[in-house]
Amino acid sequence: EAGVAQSPRYKIIEKRQSVAFWCNPISGHATLYWYQQILGQGPKLLIQFQNNGVVDDSQLPKDRFSAERLKGVDSTLKIQPAKLEDSAVYLCASSEGTGGAYEQYFGPGTRLTVT
Amino acid sequence: RKEVEQDPGPFNVPEGATVAFNCTYSNSASQSFFWYRQDCRKEPKLLMSVYSSGNEDGRFTAQLNRASQYISLLIRDSKLSDSATYLCVVTNTGTASKLTFGTGTRLQVTL
Asked: Average of pLDDT values for A32-55?
């Protein structure tokens, strides 16, 4: 079974530029998550989708970050404009449903460096 | 106070040693508990769920103490391949399956 796919794997941009990340979840998984993992910290949830609806975006910095999951499958996360503190690994995860009973499967992540 | 707190380590242990990691959480209403493993520059992967009765999977034993809001992971007979960061994770009520991660404890097993 194919896992969660993410692209690009690495991205280097200058501050104030824009960047977009793409995620393709495991087939059939209704729930999709975006996490931000800063070096030395655990992943922090940015946004959670159930199909194409947002379940939780309370920790998404909405002045610069946006995410969408059109058609309830693939998702994109955008940062505009980027700041130095956005340097992190952006992890996408998916699960069959919501609730602690459903294991979340993570993709390999996109490593963003903002200079 | 952080929602989930862990000793960041690193824990350096020789092969064959027994090592224990601890984790505390602040929300008494937390529902589900997990240990994830994250290898260097890789994504986190579920190691095991943690149940109130305690659970064991081979060399790994996880325990939960709800009264003290404390979770532990015990690794017996450590292998070189156990070297990784171990993330303590909780889910809280009212937020579906939102996982809240600790900062992780780094383990280095040496010869």
From this structure: 94
CA distance A115 to chain B (A): 20
DSSP per residue over A49-111, as a string? Answer: EETTEEEE-TTS-TTTEEEE-GGGS-EEEEESS--GGG-EEEEEEEESSSSTTSPPEE---EE
How far apart CA A31 and CA A72 sit, in angstroms, is 9
Q: What is the percent of chain B with per-residue pLDDT over 70, rounded to a whole number?
A: 95
Mean pLDDT computed over B22-31: 90
Question: A42, B8: Cβ pair inside 8 Å?
Answer: no
Contact B98 A41 (CB under 8 A): no
Q: Do the strands A110-114 and A10-13 form a parallel or antiparallel pair, or are they unpaired?
A: parallel
Question: Which chain A residue has its CA at the smallest distance from B95's CA?
Answer: A56
The pLDDT tens digits for A7-17 are 999 999 999 99
- Give how far B99 is from chain A: nearest CA, Å: 7
> Cα(A113)–Cα(A83) distance, rounded to whole angstroms?
10
